[in-house]
DNA sequence: GATGAATGAGTGTTCATTCAT
DNA sequence: CATGAATGAACACTCATTCAT
């Protein structure tokens, strides 16, 4: 029965994210995740090959969802700065609503499981953004430097600032968000 | 009686960093660390109260060493941009020579053990830098925004770029390092 | 799925009692108990929350069994002395057949785990006996002294005499048992 | 230097008794005892062959002290009942002053180490008492039953009643002590 | 004599995974 | 499909004892 399957997958997804947030990545064992999702540990292996597959799949799903939200109302016609600012605000809003997703992403990124992810596939989720950047460079609006450097200055600040472990005192007020975007833009613009 | 052996502490420090780099934080067990350091697991407990103490101590030591290297030849008399650039280059050099230290710091930062660190004490290692930033703001050279935001734009890029897991294709060439510093400065300068 | 196995519980119970008798309470480790019961140490944790739960449960089970045997054919109509003598003989017989149970009880009683037992619940197993004593006091057949003192004189002698560690030379002959009962009765009767 | 030796032995004796009372027999490790006695674990092995020797020696010393206190003012001329009552009261007083000794004795008695004690030697400490009993039997004042049975009824009740683990609610008031002695005497007298 | 360092063998417990139903 | 039982391997840590000074 299809419905039931999807329920279980959703339950496992939710349980995984919740547990990683509550007790941390290392302490999130298969049996605890199964208990949280109200299924048997054995059932988990019906849907995923092993623990790694569950964790990787959870990560990819979060990234997929993130790309959809962030690229909502994406319109290439607008000036580049405006486009980026809209994306930045979407990103900020999504983080605020789903801090649990972000904390999962961070912990996953720093685990050995990251190596098992098909990063090229993830990049494709955000392809439109990459093209905007590319256009900005061509039009001499954005600095022509290594793409990784650009990415680090545009996107990482939000992630770091949203991480309570790294920025304990920081508050995500509207002003701070706008300040940060201004600085990101100053960094990359020519 | 036998005397306490600095060699053993050094061996444990080295083994901890090496293992975390090779197999990851979560998989670095006490017995594996002990074996790598060529001591008995029981001996480890002569020098550290428990696993946490070893990991925290290793982290603090890395941070201490980093602060010394980075603040080498520190001279407040220079223009702020120059001061930051020198620090940035020191940081870059240190990262290049000790990528393993940086990977340890990252993994540690995303572990539950981070909460056990006396962060205020660590901040003091880098106090001179904080004062330069402060002066820059007072002299209206640097933007007057939340200090955490400033830190994220000045220091985090290097860390992220140096992380092969996050930036697989990135190469730390001289040009890239200078490009990145220029962008960091553009971000924070008024 | 496999079903929970009463055999395993019985095996763990037996192994626990046997080992405590053979090597002592302190030396009876989880892994040794598991090996004796021919299960994996991990399996033990399917049936009991932890070592303490196993030991406590074993103790309670022995006490429950003891109460059933000792109160067999219990009849309040008989004279009090006769009632106590029957119980005394049942107790003696049970001890003879299950010296291992008694040695387990003793060692458990002197362990820190005793504090975790619900003593009130155990007392209820022997409630009918307490009432006989109570009646004896009311009818001025038994001395009206602190209940603990009564218990010590009626029941403890059997336990101590049955303990080979405390009474190495003692033999539980019929005569000795009757002698001891006579003395217990002389002690408590008015 | 003799003085120093005796200090260390006394410190080890005290530390052993204290720790067994505070954390239990099983949890009293060599290193904890050494730390409590403020000596090195290695020093312990200068004075005792091993842990067992320390524990056994501590037990024997407690028994020796006990025999001295209990037989204080011993006078064979008095009526047997009076003699026993005096001893009983001495015993009660000593227990009250040194509950820690008694708890040590109990825990030791239920440990495997008991088997290593030279019980015959201990019996000799209390020889005068055995002879009084013997005389009581010869004079047909005390029941002529197995000596172990007599011992159990005369001496064990105090020990059990003094054990908070076995008799949680019991209070050692003067009345209770006299009640208990009366019952002990009733049990053994002809 | 006295010590703290050092350790192999063990502790109780949890793990990711598979088995039998 | 779904499950709880079952487990070998590993975990962090402590033990009684010995070694080197």
Could you report the average pLDDT of chain A, rounded to the nearest whole number? 91
The main β sheet of chain A shows up as: none
According to CATH, what is the class of the largest domain in chain A? Mainly Alpha
Strand content of chain A: under 5%
How many helices of chain A does DSSP assign? 10
Structure description:
The structure is a homotetramer of 190-residue chains. Chain A is an all-alpha fold. Chain A folds into two domains: 1-47, Homeodomain-like (Arc Repressor Mutant, subunit A, Orthogonal Bundle), CATH 1.10.10; 65-188, Orthogonal Bundle (Tetracycline Repressor, domain 2), CATH 1.10.357. The first copy, chain A, has helices spanning 2-23, 30-36, 41-47, 51-70, 80-97, 99-109, 119-125, 127-138, 147-162, 174-188. In chain A, helix 4 (51-70) crosses helix 6, helix 5 (80-97) runs parallel beside helix 9 and helix 9 (147-162) runs antiparallel to helix 10. The longest helix of chain A is centred in the N-terminal third of the chain and has 22 residues, at 2-23. Chain A is elongated. The model of chain A has no long low-confidence stretch (mean pLDDT 91). At the A-B interface, helix 6, helix 9 and helix 10 of A face helix 6, helix 9 and helix 10 of B. Chain B binds a DNA duplex (21 and 21 nucleotides) through residues 1-5, 8, 29-31, 39-47, 50-51.
What's the helix and strand layout?
Four copies of one chain form a homotetramer.
Chain A: H1 2-23, H2 30-36, H3 41-47, H4 51-70, H5 80-97, H6 99-109, H7 119-125, H8 127-138, H9 147-162, H10 174-188
Helix pairs in contact in A: 1-2, 1-6, 4-6, 5-6, 5-9, 9-10
Chain B binds a DNA duplex (21 and 21 nucleotides) through helix 3.
């Amino acid at each position: 029965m299809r419905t039931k399957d999807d329920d279980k997958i959703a339950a496992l997804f939710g349980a995984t994210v919740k547990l990683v947030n509550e007790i941390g990545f290392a302490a999130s064992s298969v049996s605890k995740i199964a208990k949280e999702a109200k299924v048997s540990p054995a059932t988990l292996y019906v849907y995923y090959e092993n623990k790694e597959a569950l964790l990787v799949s959870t990560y990819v799903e979060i990234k997929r969802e993130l790309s959809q939200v962030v690229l909502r109302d994406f319109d290439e016609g607008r000036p580049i700065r405006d486009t980026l600012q809209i994306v930045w605000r979407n990103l900020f809003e999504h983080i605020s609503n789903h801090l649990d997703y972000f904390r999962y992403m961070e912990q996953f990124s720093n685990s050995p499981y990251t190596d098992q992810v098909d990063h090229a596939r993830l990049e494709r989720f955000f392809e439109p953004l990459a093209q905007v950047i590319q256009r900005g460079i061509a039009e001499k609006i954005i600095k022509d430097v290594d793409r990784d450097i650009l990415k680090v200055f545009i996107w990482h600040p939000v992630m770091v600032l949203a991480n309570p472990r790294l920025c304990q005192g920081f508050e995500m007020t509207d002003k701070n968000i706008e300040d940060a975007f201004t600085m990101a833009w100053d960094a990359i613009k020519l």
